[in-house]
Write a structure and sequence with these properties.
Layout: H1 9-53, H2 63-148
Length: about 150
């Protein structure tokens, strides 16, 4: 049986490499996106904690503590707003990287499907070739026995 040789194997390797590269790029952008999301969640949690503790302590009833809490809350809200502004271009970049990855994946799959089809065709041809060889051997052995008789 002859070995299967795919003429476009190098192209397939290049496309696999490109896919891995795009996955890493997408992961990097997603990591930055998730960092900002986590920062926003942390700030919102701090804001909730300040709001919940506002009237629970004995010292929280004076005007100074209320003003301090309001100042902290407005600072947190500004930071959240700034993070949300940073999130918009990163989200756009993330979506672009995702689309690039999907295109790269599609290109790789096209070559993989072609390889699978050619490999399947090769196996069928080899099976038929072996079957024909076996039939030839069997028929020639049968003829030689008939000649002996």
């Amino acid at each position: 049986m002859r070995n299967f040789a795919f003429n476009l194997e190098k192209l397939l390797e290049i496309r696999r490499y490109a896919e891995r590269k795009k996955i890493l790029e997408l992961a990097e952008v997603t990591g930055r996106y998730m960092q900002i999301i986590n920062s926003i969640e942390d700030l919102k949690k701090k804001k909730r904690e300040i709001m919940e503790s506002r009237f629970s302590g004995p010292d929280n009833n004076n005007i100074h503590s209320v003003m301090r809490d309001e100042s902290l809350i407005s600072a947190i809200e500004r930071k959240v707003f700034d993070f949300e502004k940073k999130l918009i271009p990163i989200n756009i970049e993330r979506e672009n990287k995702r689309l690039e990855y999907l295109e790269t994946l599609k290109n790789k799959r096209v070559i993989e499907k072609l390889r699978e089809k050619k490999e399947s065709r090769h196996k069928k041809e080899e099976f038929l070739r072996e079957e024909k060889t076996i039939d030839d051997i069997a028929t020639s052995a049968g003829f030689s026995r008939l000649k002996e008789v």
